[in-house]
Structure formats: C-alpha cells, structure tokens
Amino acid sequence: MRPTAESKSETIARVLEDEIRSGAVREGDTLESENDLVVRFAVSRSTIRKGLQILATKGLITTKVGIGSFVTFGGTVIDSKSGWSVALSDSEARLQTRILRIARVAMEITCPYLPLGCDVLAVDRIRFHEATGRGLTLERSRMPWRADFADVLTAGLLDGSLSKTLEARDIRSHSGEEWARVLPALPAVEAELMGRTPGEPMLRLTRLTRTAAGAIVEYVESDLDPVLFGLHMAF
Amino acid sequence: MRPTAESKSETIARVLEDEIRSGAVREGDTLESENDLVVRFAVSRSTIRKGLQILATKGLITTKVGIGSFVTFGGTVIDSKSGWSVALSDSEARLQTRILRIARVAMEITCPYLPLGCDVLAVDRIRFHEATGRGLTLERSRMPWRADFADVLTAGLLDGSLSKTLEARDIRSHSGEEWARVLPALPAVEAELMGRTPGEPMLRLTRLTRTAAGAIVEYVESDLDPVLFGLHMAF
DNA sequence: TTTTCATACCTGTATGAACCTGTATGCTAA
DNA sequence: TTAGCATACAGGTTCATACAGGTATGAAAA
C-alpha cells in the first residue's frame, strides 16, 4: 500500500486531490493552468501533466485543450482531520453550527475509556440545515478536565473551533481510534434536540484521540444524518 | 577495534540504519542516490545495493526505480492493512461463505468509476450465519475483464480467495478509496438472497482499489448486518 | 454592428539530456 | 567459493525546450 515514498507527480496529484475533496476547489471550477502549477510546485510541466493525468484517471478532473482543467467531482468533505473524512453528499446544503452547551460535568456517556462520573469538559454541538432548521449532526465531545479549560466556560471556543481551542493549550492529538456503526433508531431525546423524528437509523461515529504520551485528548460521539453523510477514506 | 566479521555491505547497512534510527535522516526523506553512496563509502555500486537490500528487507526503506530510496521507518506507515477493518462485534458467530456467482457480465451496478455495460468479472458472495442460515453480508465485486480471468469462470477462485486469485495474476492493489454509509432500507431482491426481511437499514461499504498506474483493480459493494458489523480504524 | 485578425494563453506532443534504479557480466582477491 | 569491483545497458523520472493547434478577447476593419 502507499508508502510515504512517492514520486513528484504522485505528490502533486495527492495535494490537488485533497484540495478537491476538501471543497477548496469546487465542482466546475477550473484548476490553475499547467504553467501556474509549474510555478506553484516548482517542477517541470511534464511532471505537472503526469500528476493531472492521475487525477483524470480517477475521474476527479477533465481537461479541455485550449481552456484548462475542470473539477468534475461533486462531493464535499468536511472534517478531514486524521482518520475518516466525513463526506457530505449534497454539496448544496449549507450548514450552520449551534452550540448546545459548553460545561464542566461529570461524565455521563458510557464509554470504555472515560469512566462514568469523571470530571470532563463537555461540548455538545448540532449542525443543522440553514433553510429547514433540521438537525443533521449531533456531536458530543468529552475532554478530561484541565485547569486551563476554565475560561472556555465563559469565553467559549476559540474561533468557534474546538480543535483550535485545544491547540491553543498545546493539546495535540497524536494517535487515536475511530469506530463507525449504524445506530438503528434515533432516541427520542436526541430526536427532540435535532428536530427529527425518533426511530430513524443514524450513522454513529465514535472517535477517541490521545496525546503522544497516551493520555486521552477527546472522546467524541457523532450521530450523522444517514442520507446526507458518509465516510470516506483514501489509502 | 573489535573484529566483528562484518562485510562491507553490512557495514553500510548498519551505518545507514543508525542514521535513520537516530533521526538524522527522517521518514519520507530520500536517501542519497546509489552513485552518491558509492562515492561516500568508496565501494562499488553492487556493494551499496547489497547494503540497501538489507535495509529494504528490514522495512526501513523502500526504493523506487527512477526516483531513489525513501526512509519508511516511523511506525505510521507500516500499517499495511488497507483501509478500515470490519469488526464483527459478536465473535461467537461462526460465518460461512457462499458464492452466488462468478461470471463475466456487463457492468450492471451504477458506480462512478466503471461505466455501465463495460466488461467485468463479477463475484457475488454471501456470508451467512452457520446455525440460522441468515445472511449477514452480501458482497459484490466487479473487476475489469482480463483475458487471464477466463479460467476463473471454470476453476473458481484460488483457495476460495479473491485476493489470492488476483495476486496469482500479478494484479496488486497500490492505493484506493473506501466509503461507508447507511443504506436506509434493504431492497427486496437482496433481502431474498440473504434471507432477511426487506426494509431493514444496512451498513454499506464501498471500496475501490487501483494499481500504481491508477487503473482500477476492483470495485466492491458490501452490505453488512448493522447489528453485527462496525468499522474500526486506528490512526 | 458585424466580421476579421492579431495576440495571449491554454493544452497536446515531441525531443534530448541528466539522473535514477534494475540487471547482467566478467574480473580480481581473499 | 564468495565478496567485492568495474562496466555496460535497459528502462523509469524529471527537466528544459520547442512547436503545433484550440480558445478567448479586444482592437481594427468592413
């Protein structure tokens, strides 16, 4: 499988693919011209063309003579940290985030790593459809309590981002695990929160991240709308 | 100096290994070219190559023709398991495999990579519960047709394994993608095949693997019993 | 206003040189 | 016999360069 050893053309293809999948370059957009890419990657044009060839083979772009290369991949990927990417199948859907609570609580979710009752920072968030107000994701993060979390309770997340908040405190995830399964029926409580009908199946994603020393950084349970969300991974 | 009875190639391997393990040369870095190493160690190229061979056998480097040798030590890359591992939550369950068909057909599954109607080898399999006979997974593999697939139609899979069958023909997966999503309702046809009730939600796993050149090796759609199967990944 | 055309920019293609690994062969010395 | 050396050639990767032909645009001409 893919070693870190890759040719320059493969590197270029991988970088561009990431940009396309992450939505930085959207479907229908024209890619930079080959000559621009030559400057950007500081390689020869033949190498750029080889990289584009790889993307074309994968069906991510099509190129037209005299015009340029177009992105022909429609999906969007949100949350493409390490591990799985959560892919939003409908790139039209505009999402907004609502924070349900940021609080210091006793751990109330059963999880094999953080014992019930232990002191945690809880961040519960919902992402919902801008137009309909329907909740599409429900995300519950639990982080072992630290003294420097105190001002998060009053000031909120840094730039609205949990990862930035952690990073500002020098908490860096080094490794982790992820599980995905089908939640057969959405419980009534969650359904109420999300504005959905109870009993629907959902895609449940669970993630545990650790520091290099092995200490737990974050435990997250996400319930995702099964119609709009899927998981994606390249290897 | 202690007489270690060490050949020149072993010395070279040891010195380079020290440099890698000490971090002087980091993962992903390219090693000096063989000709540079010839100058540095003042030995012939065959000796250098023997030394590199030792490192490659140890998994410390990988070499690519036309490019060079790369350090691949570091732990993160070694994970040769491609993609997700499918975890069976109930380890008690004994599974048996039934092959539904091995046939040369025109592509009939809609997939963004293999156009409808193209010539493929189709292998459909069901894994089912030994005791109850209930189908737990339904797996549909599609591989672009090759002339040397002909005897698969008569002789079946090598050792009952598709990967072995491909490997025997020198078809090796180099990279790929995987998707997972919730299939809201199991279609009646599949339910019939699997001996399940239609309309249940299932976990649908899709995987596409490619050769180093980007050609498609295999496209697989798997429907998994959502109660028994989950996905797991460590990163 | 419409047509034509020069121009700039784009992709497609081809070439040779330089450098890389893979492989084979014959020779020398311990 | 084996490790090592020297050499040669095949084939992949990258670079630098050149030229052919498609596309878009704005200026000039009809």
What does this molecule look like?
In chain A, helix 1 packs across helix 3. Chain A is α+β, with helices and mostly antiparallel strands. Chain A contains six helices and eleven strands. Chain A has two domains: 8-71, Orthogonal Bundle (Arc Repressor Mutant, subunit A), CATH 1.10.10.10; 76-232, Chorismate lyase (3-Layer(aba) Sandwich). Chain A is globular and about 60 Å long. In chain A, strand 9 (202-210) and strand 10 form a beta hairpin. In chain A, the strands form three sheets. Chain A has a six-stranded antiparallel β-sheet with strand order 5-6-7-10-9-8, covered by helices on one side. The first copy, chain A, has helices at 8-21, 34-41, 45-57, 150-155, 162-168, 188-194; strands at residues 61-64, 68-71, 76-78, 85-88, 95-106, 119-129, 135-144, 175-183, 202-210, 216-224, 229-234. The interface between A and B is large, with 36 and 47 residues. Strand 11 (229-234) of chain A pairs antiparallel with strand 7 of chain B, so a sheet runs across the interface. The structure holds a DNA duplex (30 and 30 nucleotides).
